[in-house]
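Hi all, posting the design record for the shared folder.

TITLE: backbone redesign
STEP: 1 of 1
STRUCTURE INPUT:
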């Protein structure tokens, strides 16, 4: 069974959350995604290497205030 991580990302504002959601949804490797607009939070499941590329693109755009990663399988 392939490893999958859940990434939890927090953003500075709603515009950054919305833009980052687009990055996540464009990835063919993301298995699932949850958006929590009131908390400016986005969670997604993906294999580690693919998720790292998505998070790096989001980070380079700015507005990311916190990111955590946990292996779930």
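Okay, here is what came back for every position:
SEQUENCE:
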């Amino acid at each position: 069974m392939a490893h999958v991580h859940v990434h939890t990302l927090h953003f500075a504002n709603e515009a950054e959350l919305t833009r980052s959601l687009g990055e996540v949804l464009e990835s063919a490797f993301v298995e699932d995604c949850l958006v929590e607009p009131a908390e400016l939070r986005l969670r997604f499941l993906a294999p580690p290497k693919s998720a790292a590329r998505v998070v790096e693109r989001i980070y380079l755009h700015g507005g990311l205030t916190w990111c955590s990663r946990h292996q779930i399988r």
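COMMENT: The chain has two helices and four strands.
Let me know if anyone wants the other runs.
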